[in-house]
Amino acid sequence: MDLKNSLIEESKSIEQYVIETRRHIHMYPETKYEEENTAQFIEEELHKIGYETVRTAKTGVIAVLEGDTEGKTVALRADTDALNIQEENDVPYKSKIPGKMHACGHDSHVAMLLGAAKILYKHKDKLSGKVKLIFQPAEEGGGGAAKIVEEGHLDDVDSIFGIHVWRELEAGIIGTRSGPFLASADQFRITIKGKGGHAASPQQTFDPTAVLPDIYNAIQKIVSREIDPLEKAVISIPMISGSDAHNIIPSEASMEGTFRTFSNDVRDFIIKRITEIVEGYSHAWRCEGKAEFEIDGIYYPPTINHKESVDNLKEILKPLDEVQEADLTMGGEDFAFYLNKTKGAFIALGLHNEDKGIIHPHHHPKFNVDEDSLWKGTAIYSLLGFYYVFLNSQK
Question: Which of the four pLDDT bands, split at 50, 70 and 90, describes residue 142?
C-alpha cells in the first residue's frame, strides 16, 4: 500500500510535465503513419529517462522495462496519431499544422504514458518481470495495432492495457466494463455507374444520382426493419458525391460510410443486404454499368475486455479511485487487435467538464480535455504496469 500511494503521489508531482508534454504534441499533430516527428519526440523523452527504444509499425515506438527478476510481461499502450480536422479552439497550444488536429485525445495518451515511463523507471529495482511501453501509430483507420501484433511484439505479453480520454464521463472518473466495450467498425464505399449528360435532358441519361437517395433510404431500413431490436447496430453514410457542376449529370456517383455492431453474424447480414440493395436499385434505374459495394480500409473487430483483467485492475486501482461501469459504445478501436491476441482491458478516463467548457465530442474541431485529470492517467498506467506484473507473478 505504501508503494501504491507513492506511485499515486509521484504521478501528481509530475502533473505539469504531463500537461506540457500533451500541449507540445497537440501543437504538432500528425496523422496515421506520418507521426515521424511525434515518434522522434517520444524516443528523445524515453532516452532521457534511460530507456532503449525500437521502432514498430513504421512510426511507432516501443520501450521495455525489465525488472531484476523474471516474471510476467504487461504492456501499456498509447496511440499517437491525430485527425484531418481544422482546430477551432482558441488556446495557446492550438494546432500549428493547418487542417490537422488532435481531436481524439491521443496527445493526452502519449503524455500520460511518458509520465508513467518516468515513474516506473524510478522503481524498476522493485519490479519482477517486464513492462512494455507501446506508443502506437495509426489508430484512426490505419490499424496500427494490427501491424504491431503482426510484427510479434505481443508474443511475449501476458496482459495489455490502454487508456482513452472519454467524453461520456466526467473529468477524472475511471470507467471500464467486462466483455464487449466498443463495437466493430467497417468502412464502405458504394459506386453507381450510369450514363451522364446534360441536366436539361435527363431522359437521355441513366442518372446515378437519382439512385443514391433510394439506396441510402433502403440501407437505413436494414437496422430498423431487418435486425433484431435487441441487437446493437448502426449504419451511417455521411459522404455522398456526384457531379461537380449544377448542369451536368455525372456518369458515376458514390457514397461512403461505416457500419458497426458487436456481432459477426449481424455484420455478415449487413454486408449481404447492402450488396443486394445496391445491385437491385441500380438495375431498377437502368444504371447498367457495374454497381460496386466494397469494404474499404481495415476491419476493426469488437473491443472485448477480459473479465479477469477487469477484476484485477479494479482491485489494483482502488487506492486511486473506484472504477465505474462504463456504457457500451458504437465507437471502434484497434485496441481490439491486442485483445484478440492476449488478455487485457481498455479503460476510459473522463474528460467532460461543463464549467470549463470542455463539452465537445471526439472528432469535433473544438474537442479538448480537462488537463487537471491527466495525472490520473499517469497513475493508472503506473499502478497497472507495476502491480499487474506483481499480481500475476505471485499467481
Answer: very high
Q: Is 172 left (phi over 0), alpha (psi -120 to 50) or beta?
A: left
* 85 vs 29: CA distance, rounded Å: 10
- Per domain, the residue ranges of the chain are 2-182+302-394, 185-299
Q: Strand 128-136 to strand 60-66: parallel, antiparallel, or no bridges (unpaired)?
A: antiparallel
Residue 394, pLDDT above cutoff 60? no
pLDDT in tens, 311-331: 999 999 999 999 999 999 999
pLDDT per residue over 156-207, tens digit each?
A: 999 999 999 999 999 999 999 999 999 999 999 999 999 999 999 999 999 9
Q: What is the 3-state secondary structure (H, E, C) of 286-354?
A: CCCCCCEEEEEEEEECCEEECHHHHHHHHHHCCCCCCCEECCCECCCCCHHHHHCCCEEEEEEEEEEEH
Phi and psi at 80, nearest 5°, equal -120, -10
The one-letter amino acid at 356: K
Count of alpha carbons within 13 Å of 25, Cβ hemisphere only? 34
Task: Write out the three cell numbers for 384.
Answer: 497497472
Residue 392 pLDDT: 53
- Per DSSP, the three-state class of 77 is strand
CB 195 within 8 A of CB 251: yes
Q: How far is residue 357 CA from its own chain's centroid?
A: 23
Coil/strand/helix, residue 63: strand
**365-386: pLDDT as tens digits:** 999 999 999 999 999 999 999 8
**Residues taking part in catalysis:** 300, 371
| CATH architecture observed for domain 2-182+302-394 | 3-Layer(aba) Sandwich (3.40)
Q: What is the CATH number of domain 185-299?
A: 3.30.70.360
**Rounded-to-integer distance, Cα 331 and Cα 355, Å:** 26
As a whole number, the mean pLDDT across the chain is 95
